[in-house]
Specification:
The strands form two sheets. The protein has a five-stranded mixed barrel with strand order 1-3-6-8-7. The radius of gyration is 28 Å and the shape is globular. By secondary structure, the protein is of the alpha+beta class. 15% of the residues lie in helices and 36% in strands. The protein starts with a strand and ends in a 13-residue tail after the last helix.
Length: 190
């Protein structure tokens, strides 16, 4: 594949426009890149001419972009460069688009807080374990301890000191191998 991949640093010039299409959602916005150069003669920074790009972000990137970016936000855009010529009203015009692969805030100018998005189709990201079995095992273990004081006579031997894990990625062997202190707190690696 002979794509031209670019990384641009600039600002969102317009708001993000998100639309659903048959192949998935797409977000579009205009992106302004203004080079700054040191002018030795005046001993000051000067702005060059601003270049504008139309940035397209598909599917999950587009949805996350819509919720994260506002007009004027400093961004870093990484993606494939597309140049197209069109004739409008008898005039030939050139448009430069970026099919974004990754977009993020430029942390040179401020801070950002990342928030992971939980997708509706969790089967693609979660391990295939029956969560109802793990939850019922956890409920049975905590129900055996009475009201949570840990002194109930219903609890079987070793139930007080053994940690109860509802994480499906921990096996029974991982749970039993962990050393447990006097207060029931694991003292070694899980």
């Amino acid at each position: 594949m002979n794509d031209t991949v670019v990384t641009l640093v600039g600002n969102a010039a317009t708001g993000v426009d998100f639309r659903e299409t048959p192949t998935g959602g797409v977000a579009r916005f205009r992106f302004a890149v203004t080079p700054r150069r040191w002018d030795r003669r005046n001993s000051a920074w000067t702005d060059g001419s601003t270049s504008f790009y139309t940035v397209c972000a598909w599917r999950n990137l587009g949805a996350n972009l819509t919720a994260s970016v506002n007009v004027g936000d400093p961004l870093v855009v990484h993606g494939r460069l597309r140049v197209r010529d069109e004739t409008l009203d008898g005039q030939r015009r050139t448009f430069v688009d970026i099919d974004a692969v990754s977009i993020g805030h430029d942390l040179t100018w401020g801070t950002s807080a990342f928030k992971r998005v939980v997708r509706a189709n969790a089967a693609l990201t979660e391990p295939s374990v029956d969560m109802s079995a793990a939850a019922s095992a956890a409920n049975a273990a905590t129900a055996g301890n009475g009201s949570g004081s840990g002194s109930g006579s219903d609890a079987g031997p070793g139930a007080v000191g053994k940690p109860v894990h509802t994480q499906p990625w921990l096996s029974e062997q991982d749970e039993s191998a962990a050393p447990v202190g006097a207060a029931g707190v694991p003292t070694g690696p899980l």
